[in-house]
Each structure stands twice: as C-alpha cells, then as structure tokens.
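Action item from last week, closing it out:
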Amino acid sequence: MAILWLLMALVMLSLVLVPVLRRGRAAVGLVPPGHPDAADPAAYGFVRQEELDVRMPGPDQDLLDVLDLVQRTQDYRAAAQLLAGTEAGGEVRWQRVQAFAGAAALELRQRPGGVHETPGAQWLRVWRAERPKDAGAAAVHAEFLVQQAWRTSTPGTDEFRIIMEEARRACGEAALLAPGDPVPYVVELSAARGLACSQPEFEKLWMNVLDRAPHHMGAHLAALPYWCGKWHGSREQAYAFAEAAAARAPEGSLLAALPLFAVFEHLPEVNLVRGFYRSEVVTRAMHGALHAVHAAAPDDPVLAHVRHLLVFFLVRAERWAEAMDQLIHVDGHVGALPWSLSDDPAADFALYRALAVAGYEANGGSPATLPG
C-alpha cells in the first residue's frame, strides 16, 4: 500500500511540475487562429496559405506567364518558344521542363476525359505530334511520363514498369534531338531508379550527365535517391555521393548543400532521440547548406530548393531566427522538398511557417526586428 501511495504522489507532483517546466523553457506550439497568443504570419508580409504556388520552388515570372497562357488557351506555342530560348545546359531549363510536365500531369488528373469530355493536357499531345523534332517537347513529354508513373501507379507493378520503359524511350529521343543538353539524361535518372537499374548501368547514365554538366545541382538531386537505403544503395553510399559532390563543388555552387538532402532522405520514420535535429551530423549538414546559400548568386535558380529544405531543418532544430531568414526569401512558392512530398504542400509549408513565426516571437522577435 505504501508503494501505491508513493506512486500516486509522484503522478500528482508531475502534473504540477511539467507545465511549469514547459513554461520555463518557452515551449512553442500552435494555437487556434484568433487566439490572443496566436502569432500572425501576415504581419511579416507572408502570403495566405490558399495563395501559395505549389508549381515551382521560387519565382519565374516568364514561366508563370507562359503556363497561364498555355493552360488557358491550350496552345503550346508559347511553351515551345520559351524552352527554345532557355539555355540548354542550365538549371533553369531543367526546372521549366519539370514545371511544364507537372502542369500537364495535374491537368490530366483533374480532367481525365471521358465520353463527352476532352482530357487535360491536350496542348502537350498536340505539341509533340505537330513538332516531333522539337527537343523541348520531347523533354517535357519524357518528364511527364516519369511523373505519371510515380503519381498514378505503384513501383514494381506492370503498369509502373510499362510507363517507365516508355519514359526511358522518350528520354532517348529527347537526347538525340539535343545532344549537348543534360536534361534528358537527368529525367532518365528517375526512370532508371524506378526500373531498378543495376549500379553499373546507373553509373554509366550518370557519366552522360557529368560529361555535359558536371556541377548541375538538379542532376545531383535527381541522382541522390538512387543511392539511398530505401532504393538501391545505402545510407553510406548516399552520404558518400553527396559529400563527394560537395567537396568538388566550385565556389558559389549549391552542391555544398547536397549532404543536407542526403540527411533528409534518411530521416527516421519515428524520431525518439531528443535533440536529433541538433546532432553533429544534422548540424554539420545544415551549416554546409547555410554556407552554400550565403555564397551562391542571389539569382541562382536552385537557391530556393535549398532554402525550402533549410526551413524544415531549422524549424525542427528550433533555430527560429535563421528559419525566418530563409522564409522571407521563398515565401509564396512551395514546389520543392519537403513540401512536394505531401498531399497538401501548401498546408505543410504554412504549418512550419507558423511554427517559425511563433518561435521567433517567443524569443523576442517581431516584424520590426526581422532583417529585410
């Protein structure tokens, strides 16, 4: 009986002390909108959740204007003109190919077609049919097939394999139309992962990319998952791939941030270790990414990808001011990891943004103290 009374006393003591300890550590949480303690992201000039653009990681006004025109008129010619004028070996072309393919895939999902309905993405079909020698159309079609496979079927099934094999054939056609362009090979990296290509075969494909664009960040982001433990490699192989790329990165290259993406790919499903996001491995990868961001050119087209992932890690590590510094640069667009893995990217981004604002204000921050 004495032991029972002792246990009851300990429970009552914990009920009193735990809330006090939490207040003493300035714990951060979310409260309902309108609550007196609710932090207001709008006070920092952040856009409303329903206005967040899920199509791309950062602003590209030319692309936005063309996407709106193409989807409104179903006329592909503006897209063809934009890609024809985009540098073949650059990161922008890779992102624009992804965006056009993603827009087509979303259209088709929203309007699959039927007896009395024309399916979505007709503009891509017409573009490919009317201009079979257009390298841009071929690359967008290949990326469209890859995205369709991942979104609509299950890896390992016959349906998935058939779509991915068709995507690889489309990549080959795109590569023949633009021999110096790495984008068809970058697209093929994802298809090769889905088809479980052997490591020697994947490395041969990777050499095709390196021969054309050895410091292409988008290509490295596409190749990294293959080497991860959940696909065809291991944690050690993925870390080695990322760290080797970071080590050979030229000054100002965002490849120095690649180890942070490798860490993200191997996050535990359930994290039971307190302080995991402040551990040496995570902290070192975050510092590498922060250095890369500070050294990169402000108009680097891949900069937003790194900033978005930093928001995720900095919030988890409760580094609120640094998270806010990244948010002011990327707010408005959420088409990047980690949000793009969610069924509702805008909601996930808005949650982390609200946590960052709440943590920032809980530690004395305000709109007036946030650097512009």
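Closing note: The two ends are 64 Å apart (CA to CA).
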